Amino acid sequence: MIIFYFCCFVYEKKTVVKIKMAQVPVYGLASHARKVCSLYKKALRNLEMYYDRRHVYRYQAVLMRERFDQNAKIRDMRKATELLKAGEEELFLIQHPIPKKFTYSPGGVAFEREVEPPDWVLDYWHPLEKAEYPEYFKRREERKKQFIEMWEKEYGKEDPKSAHH
After folding, report:
1. What is the pLDDT of residue 25?
2. Of 28, 76, 108, 122, which residue has the fewest beta carbons closer than 10 angstroms?
């Protein structure tokens, strides 16, 4: 998200900025506490899949919370890491065979179902439709020309003999 915004900003200002590797945000690293919280949430979601009665699920969730609270005061990081790995392995072994996936989450039935029309669709708008947004289409035409100039500068002009399909 940060990188996408940065690239758009650079495009608007027409400047070139080189990014060093140290400036790229790292999303894979998480603290031990974050991993434990994630494991706890996954364990509760797994319990939700197994128990359809709310009162039974809540009872099992309280028991699960008790298991996590028993190890909350451990300060030895080696032991805590071993417990975390054991918990992740246990969760993997008892995971539900048909996991519940939320509709708009990755893996859900409606994830990324919104079709975004390609840019060329705007070229086929009627002139009266384009007249409703004059500033946008003026800026769009300027950017299309800039893109063509940038393309020709980087890759050269197209050979007219090879312009067919």
Report:
1. 58
2. 28
Q: Which of 62, 48, 44 is nearest to 98 (CA)?
A: 48
CA-CA distance, 87 to 84, in Å (whole number)? 5
Contacts for 48 with CB less than 8 Å, ≥ 6 apart: 57, 100
**Quick check: is 123 in a domain?**
yes
Looking at the structure of the chain, the number of domains it has is 2
Structural domain for 125, as ranges? 119-155
User: What's the CA gap between 42 and 95, in Å, rounded?
Assistant: 9
pLDDT digits (tens, 9 = 90+) for 42-60: 999 999 999 999 999 999 9
Q: What are the residue ranges in the chain where pLDDT is below 70?
A: 1-28, 163-165
Same-domain status, 128 and 88: no
Which alpha helices (H) appear in 14-133, and where do they start and end? Answer: 32-50, 54-70, 77-93, 127-131
84-94 confidence digits (pLDDT tens): 999 999 999 99
Nearest to 62 by CA among 43, 36, 75, 90: 43
